[in-house]
Protein: HAD family phosphatase
Organism: Streptomyces venetus
Amino acid sequence: MTSTVPALGTRTAEGSALQAVLLDMDGTLVDTEGFWWDVEVEVFASLGHTLDESWRHVVVGGPMTRSAGFLIEATGADIPLEELTVLLNDAFEDRIGGALPLMPGAGRLLAELYEYEIPTALVSASHRRIIDRVLKSLGAHHFGLTVAGDEVPRTKPHPDPYLLAAAGLGADPARCAVIEDTATGVAAAEAAGCHVVAVPSVAPIAPALRRTVVTSLEEVDLTFLHGLMTEMR
């Protein structure tokens, strides 16, 4: 795993129950969920298959193996999962060759977390090769730790990636705020015991216990995140 783990910031620990912020990548910080679907459509078209638009809600936010496996089964495409995974990652890497569009409010939120020394991790189901490319647009310095989907035995919707990120930052999962855009990611964060801020990208997500739903990251700042933890006391 490629990471740099900082000490827990004193300004974070004092006066607030918030110990760390853990953020998803695709659809949460960068506007790439549509890119993934376009790539899947293109790759399967090259294999002679047309994807149904309704399948987009099934594959969004999931690990590559789950999404690709579902599409193979749904289309009946004659291609090994490992080969398809390489094709999809290659096509996506080509698509994100330049600067990526950030989601509204993402750049401002990352800058604020960095300024106030909030321990922050990027936790994605995407593979390491993809994360390292996207970090060029996000700024690797914003994250003390990054966790890729191909670096954990079980990725989202299992809690493992978020538990690993919290441990790496020296934080209690119950005192971590997770920001996610899909039901798969929300399930992973909640299974890890974190408080979730959901910013739905493709499919709606309902509010629930320990889950706050907003329409944009423009609604989320450090005061907002501290307030979530204060309400939990």
